[in-house]
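User: Teach me something about this protein's shape.
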Amino acid sequence: MEKSSGGEVVLLFDYFNRGSLDLFDSFKNAGRNCHCVVINDDGFLPEDVTNVFEYFLGDFDDGSCPGKPLYFNQIKVPDYWEISANNTSGLIKDKGKERGRIFFQPPTHKRLVSLVDFLDEDGNVRITEHYNKYGALYAKTAFNKDSKKVTKAYFNSRGQEVVVENFVTGDIILDWEGTHQIFKSRTDFVSFFIRYMGWVSCPIYFNSLSVPFFVSNSLPATEGKKDILFWQEQTRGTVPGNMQVILQNRASRCSRVIVQNRPSYEALMALKVPKDMVTELGFIYSFKKQNHGKPEALICTNTENVEKLKEILTAVPEVKFHVTALTEMSGQLLAHEKYENVIMYPNIKAATLERLFIQCDFFLDINHEGEIVEATRTAFIHNQLILAFSETSHGPEYTSRENIFDIKDYQNLIDRLKSLVSNKEALEAALERQRMDGLTASVADYKVI
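Assistant: First, the predicted structure itself:
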């Protein structure tokens, strides 16, 4: 059993999503000693992040498995079955009949296997295989005939069953170190893990009002109620019920809420929550320095539909535009190459894209549908001034409101770009506002939590 030393905190997350990663990085950047724990399993977690279920599976880096993620065509299937894939997903077929679906770990164009769904004769999912970054099959989820989850079994590197979660009853069975233990819920299971690790006396910082909150409430109370909810979700008109428990001082360990989303903070303030219990705090980012030379702008897209691209290219000829995509580009998009101030990058390599994020001063968030490579966040960190249309904006939390325009007012976006290109002092001031609007925090902010 690991014992806690003074000053440690536990970051307890439902999922290791972008908000969880940014919060974890902020604590590390502030030099805070913390344990990062994730409840929902993900076989591709960083080495310094612990999953509660996977912890009991032991080491996979022991030579018993490939030691690296599986490429899509390495999945084991019956003889003569066909495996095919594109840059987003894969298929398994038997004589033209679909038998399985392959899901890749982001970035998906690398085609590294994360999940494989196997289908019955009627096309319903019956088994999902879960693979990790070592290429090992570490879990299987079983479904009933209605494609509803029934159980999920977790295996160690030798294929031995260690943990089984029953989604019908909520029970979790753990066979470990010669013991057979049954937990009635995920809350009980995670609480057992916290106790086993010797972290009960550590403050628990969590960003979800589901299982992490229930775990905090189930542990013995601490003097001063040191647990904290880091609220990163949208607040839609009302205070969530479990947050009300905290704000009414009815939680056993938590009596403070830190909001990491400005619209949510403003919404909570409008709902007149106790101001002494709710504060706003962003993240500590490691910003990249920019060398402003000839003005250049970056556009990242996974679709041919880049809004008002022709109008922008022709209106600002002094700016060199770099339009990038991870896949092939359509003829309609490539037709813009006729303009002298644009370079098109179909099938762009990661190193080239990283160079452009460093090289460019502006990022235009003007492509429809999804974004690639977390482009707006990456542009924010690289100190690119982000301009967007409200109809295409993928990262409003990273974009100053003054730099988001309606498509019908596209000329205002062009005028804004032209004004910043010609005035470097104005550009620097706009970047500073963008960092402030993006809730950039300091080391000192995290030291005093």
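Now, about its shape. The chain has three domains: 9-59+183-280, 72-164, 296-437. The domain at 9-59+183-280 is CATH 3.40.50.11930 (Rossmann fold). If you'd like, I can walk through any region in more detail.
User: That's plenty for now, thanks!
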